[in-house]
Amino acid sequence: MKTFCGRANPSTGALDWVEESEEYDYHQEIARSCYADMLHDHDRNQKYYEGIRSAVSRVRARGQKVVVLDIGTGTGLLSMMAATAGADFCYAVEVFRPMAEAARSIVEKNGFSDKIKIINKHSTDVTVGPDGDMQEKANVLITELFDTELIGEGALPSYEHAHQNLVQAGCEAVPHRASVYAQLVESELLWSWAQLQPLEVDGARLAAPPAVARCAGAHSVCDIQLSQVDPSSFTPLGPVLSMFSVDFSKPVSSSFQAHCSQFTARSGGRAQVVLSWWDLDMDPDGSIVCSMAPSWTYRQPQDAPWRDHWMQSVYFLPAERSVSEGDELRLTVCHDDYSLWFKRNTCQTEAPPPRPCCTCQAHLVWTRPRFGELNDRRRTESYVGALRQVLRDDDGVCVSVSDGSLLPVFAHMLGAKKVLCLMSGSVQVLEANQMKGGVELLEMRPEQLSSSDLGGQQISVLVGEPYFSTSLLPWHSLCFWFCRSALSGLLRPDASILPGAASLHMVAVQFQDLWRIRAPCGTCEGFDVTPMDEMVQSSLEFRESREAEPHPLWEYPCRALTRSEPVMSFDFRHCVPQQPISSRGSLAGRCHGVALWMEYHLTDDITVSAGLTEPISEQGDCVWSRHRKQGVYFFRTPAESSADGRAAVSYSFTFEPSSGDIKMDFSVTTP
């Protein structure tokens, strides 16, 4: 059986649908999963183990047989904990077939096959009875169905169904309850991810479209490593509030609910953003707590456990409002069966807010990092400065090739007589600033552009950020090079190209924590989980699974072990070559992997980096762009992670003009 998979095509900027074998999809899911991150999360594992021991003891104290239902068992770890704690039998439910098979192997390897039954179904399809999947209802319910938003993986419907059909009344639950917390803040940094801010270009003000300012924005949660957002970049307007709790030992409802908390403003400012996280109480007394709070809420920030499978959430209010110190405020959180949203209430009788929905289209086109990039004044100054250098006083044609870019607007503001925008444009920005006649939006592929579209003229200036919404890895932006090549017949011989060139950069790094998502586990809390490691390794070696991965490295501290160096260069002043471009070299020392990013040389003296934004410090500290994801190639073999520091890592990069992609290979040699 075949399946269709979407794949970014750097040579066209489009998402191509290609036919793959049925194994391809789940190998990709396993290879890119965070199962290893969860198994390396000792705090999570330990708190679950303590909660399970406590629940089993309480049932035993009532003189009852302990029957466990473990929903979303994954590797079977929590069921093995329950069996070790004294459970008589465990029903472990896992819907993902490869993971269910791995769980069976792990359970067997650890000698629990007579105590644990793996059920490869969704929990809502599990049956109870003499001929069912479960012989009887469980009296201990164990789950790990949570995501960063707590309920985004369908925890509430699963709990609702389990209480109605799979567990006994008055059952013990691990975790026992979850509590959601929130804090209202003002933050220019975070707010720039939600709304387009006014800009100044050559002394003229570029206003944000009113429709965007009035829009409630995208409804999806913004999940980030909030510990990496410096507290100096936001102002708390009130205390951390306990918004609501869910008791998992009792029947749970997945229907719409609203909860309101009242508080006194501690400082004045603009109510813009809600920071949110949740805790799990593993026992009824709340003595065993697994917290998702960011590190800056801890007395000793270094004591905060690191995890990537559960982070923190940022919610953007529908509109910013002024707050004065001492104001009595109300913050409302609503949730349906899968998501949360917040609103600052003006009165007690105000109706609960509806789920946010983008009405301006901009939040559907621009991602949150993209909003931040467009609002970056320093970056804007670089592009405006470069445009000043390349724009001409004649009646030439300036063509912009990038998705949702403001460059054509800037070019018009700087005096370009004729500006054409290919691909998706910023219609609302043009309308809001009475510029629609100054920039012509064609929204066509470069190869479709003809001389008649240019009024018989040739292109004198070709500009691009470059940015393409389908790009996943840094070098996918080389689509600009292919666009430039497609337009070569329409370019003036002396046409200016901005950027004139780009370079791929690399640095060897040692991650503080991110290495955990790809590191083998071996033994987890005393249980052998090597079948899981073997399954992940097999998927990593399947076809294209072992390649660089996109990660926003500003969220993941790392230390540079080498200098940053360019490993490939691309000259946009010339067409894409017919033959591949190759580069080879080597690195020395122990590292978790390499970070890769693009730098765009707008002119001879202006460069914009999509990776490191400051020089590496003497201690190896790195400051990364918040706007684009960098590529990370993780080293996985023992030699690549050896502690002797003497290993040499040889690398090779090959740019393939036929696909527009960059293939890379790393090998290790030891003396």
Automatic annotation (TrEMBL):
For this protein, what is any one GO molecular function term?
Answer: histone H4R3 methyltransferase activity
Entry keyword set: Chromatin regulator, Cytoplasm, Differentiation, Methyltransferase, Nucleus, Repeat, S-adenosyl-L-methionine, Transcription, Transcription regulation, Transferase
Q: Tell me its EC number(s), please.
A: 2.1.1.321
For the biological process aspect of GO, one term held by this record is: epiboly involved in gastrulation with mouth forming second
Query: Keyword Transferase on this protein?
Result: yes
**In what residue span(s) does the Protein arginine N-methyltransferase domain sit?**
176-343, 501-669
Tell me the Pfam families matching this sequence. PrmA, PRMT_C
An annotated GO cellular component of this protein is: cytosol
Protein name from the UniProt record? Protein arginine N-methyltransferase
